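WP5 quarterly update. Target: hydroxymethylpyrimidine kinase. Source organism: Parapedobacter deserti. Length: 279 aa.
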Amino acid sequence: MNRKKYRYPSVLTIAGFDGSGGAGIQGDIKTISALGCYATSALTALPIQNTQGVRTIYPIPYQAVNEQIETILDDIFPDAIKIGMVHTAELVSTILDALARYPHVPVVFDPVMVATSGDKLIEDKTIAAIVERLFPIAAVVTPNMDEAAILAEMPVRTLDDMRLAGAKIRQLGCRSVLLKGGHLDAPRLTSLYFDEAGDVHEFSFDRFETNNTHGSGCTLSSAIACFIAQGRNLLEAVGAGQEYVHQAILHSRDVQVGHGNGPLNHFFNPLELKKYDLV
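Structure tokens (predicted):
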């Protein structure tokens, strides 16, 4: 008698390295694992960083990036893809070429341009390539306020600024935009989700004091990809992803890891790997 076989919902993260463990591929793998999905990865860059900031960034050969992605796609096909650090126009082309055969896999793109520490992580000439080529394949793009200011070419300091900037970014060609409000100077932090129909949805959480937000953007985009991989629609995935990040920060707020912006507690409520029938 043959035993019934199953599969795990799989999420591929295409992102940079973080030796301090809170952001980048390390943060993504923690998030994906904590939410009951199976994590695969392709490394795009080797930043030298800790909780206090980025010291330098070493490139990964483009051919190596291409081969990493193709090798994973040939064997462990993902239910969703998260794309993080893409710091050159050539890397944009490399990723697009590798994904070209798989246009129907949902992509969550976190346009990593500015680190939590304030360090700029992207070359100026790369922005046009990202907008022109990566935005059209993304189900949702997740800029923070600093990144939204770059993309919308305007100051983004208030909720009204966010509304205007989010609408501008959505017009650049992506299906939907989650503009994260973690840098708002307000007692409640509000993020805005601009959906495929052009409707705007607000998600608000009470502010609390903590330095442990390193990797929050990476974690959020990976969480959204996980919930998409598990079959939720975009609005549900965005809402569930934000609740997960809020709780992960809340459960880490009194812990000290390093001397700068510490990591989230990704495993505050870890889930077992989900099993789906193998079709």
